[in-house]
Amino acid sequence: MWTSLVCTLFLLIICLTGLPLIFAEQINDLANPTMEYAAVPPGTPNESLDRLIDKAKHVYPGEIITSIFADDDEPEVYIWMAPSFASVKANPGLAHFVRFDAHSGHIIERSGPGQRDQTLTGFLFRLHSDLFAGLPGELLLGTMGLLFVTAIVSGVVLYGPFTRRLDFGIVRTGRSRRLRWLDLHNLLGVVTLAWTVIVGVTGTVNELSTPLFALWQQTDVAAMLAPWQGKPPPRPDQLFSAQAALDLASKALPGTVVTSIVFPGDDDGTPYHYLLWAHGSTPLTSRLFSPVLIDARTGKLTAIVRMPWNLRTLEVSRPLHFGDYGGTPLKVIWALLDLVTIVVLASGLYLWAAKRKRTLAVTQRDPHAPAPPLDLLEAAE
User: Domain 35-132 falls in which CATH fold?
Assistant: First the structure.
């Protein structure tokens, strides 16, 4: 009882914010109308990343490239820049991007320093994932997820004896409003049982992403980079071709798509390598990312990083949490189940408040009498 009560308020926030996030891609498409990209024959390669880098540096001379993101849904390339790694570390707002048409190489958009691409879905995701509290918020919501799963298990255990006295799934429409809601609460809870367990477990796993990735970086990744420790990182004018690094990573991982390149010096990478992230081209493998390290001075492949099973589990659980595996039909099913769960949570709060009110009313008539059990309260109705 208390485990479900403690986590209900947080779960309502999660369910209410998670509902639009199921359709985040569609919402973003509506907020950002489709752009007209340069028409090219099928199979035409995108503009070289090196040329796009030169254009970005021409627009912002004296600045460095921190990372590159290539959209795998639209022919767009984002080149992120900053005055220096030290300055952007002290003030993340100094980071900005230049967005290119990947077909023609023309500049589509330039964001000014301090301009953050804050969207409605981005705001909701922060609220959904960490309550705008960073790691403490993630850990808090992860704990609420564990309490939620515990409450589901305890609810199933309690519902068994309850159904021995009544028909399974019955809603006693002729009784009091509180009993009707109790029956509806139990029925909807059983109907959504499998879904709530899946979403609760995957949500809890997702909240552990920050500490799990940090632990991996401090152990396996740190051991991998040990041979380069103490060596001076390359200067911007010493960097190997970014396009050649992308081509090498694509060749090393056939059947994958490279979507981003983190430059040496960025906090999300290493001081000595290009860190490239590639994912598969099938519906399942598109959610499994493989990091590739390429020496930024020589252009030699350093390693294809094998992520541990717990991080692989995390990668798979993220799209499952939002119903991203089955296209729009699965998203609609996920949304309907989310709405039902909101009703279950809200009715649970109502039932707790109603039970507490009736218990207080009975005990106030005789302050020395023990609080009657739930069965007697129900019988009185």
Answer: Nuclear Transport Factor 2; Chain: A, (3.10.450)
